[in-house]
Amino acid sequence: MAVILKKVGTLEYLVAEGIETPHCFTTRLGGVSTGIFDSLNLNFSRGDDPANVVENYRRIGAVLGFTPEDVVNARQIHSDIVVRVDKENRGKLAVAGASPECDALITKEPGMALFASTADCTPILLWDSATGAVGAVHAGWRGTASAIGAKAVAAMTREFGTKPEDVRAAIGPNIGFCHFETDADVPQAMLEAFGQEVKPFIRQQNDKFYVNLKEINALILRRAGVRHIEISDCCTMCQPDRFWSHRVTRGQRGAQGGIIVCKEVRR
After folding, report:
1. Which DSSP category does 168 fall into?
2. Global pTM?
3. Which CATH architecture does the domain made up of 3-261 adopt?
4. pLDDT tens digits for 7-42?
């Protein structure tokens, strides 16, 4: 199983072969936004025309089978907060202050689509193959050090009866091991949180460090009992024409991310 690129007209997106509910990791290609938001920007908070963002959601939704009114997003704060959302949270994408303040969303409400916004940070999608519950996670390095992926799985277990061994996880495009240059505080946080097991995912070069956030998040999920994990090999800094990178653009950008749709499981 792998995370593979798909194209529909000008729209490009990635899907994990092991997740059977509609989902994707978006790219910046195939939308209607212009300027620094060119073209499939899915973030309302960075200054893009809201009508363009809604149309961008409509376009990706037409492929995956949802409408903009089905989507819930979060006001992301680089936390380890996980919030359960239900049908009363739908349709408020462009309403200021309506989105929950957190960095992971979970639901078991059929028809809802959850979105995690990224532009170098790590998007994680979760699908419970037994109950149909889903999760969308934004894992910055602070969220990673706080094991937000594992906390999302634990919340799904608590709220929906999810068994970690039934979860299919996908880790999407982020700033890769090749480019995530940091000071000592980031590797120190990872080592303090997870011990020596993360050492292979940290490389020192002179007075700087490089950290593999994809593999650390995969380790976190495995420790939480998740057995099925697919990892994209895409780096946002390596492919700035396909993905937004906060570092490449120095913050002048739109956002891609991970979207997953909850569907009722039929037995």
Report:
1. E
2. 0.98
3. 4-Layer Sandwich (3.60)
4. 999 999 999 999 999 999 999 999 999 999 999 999
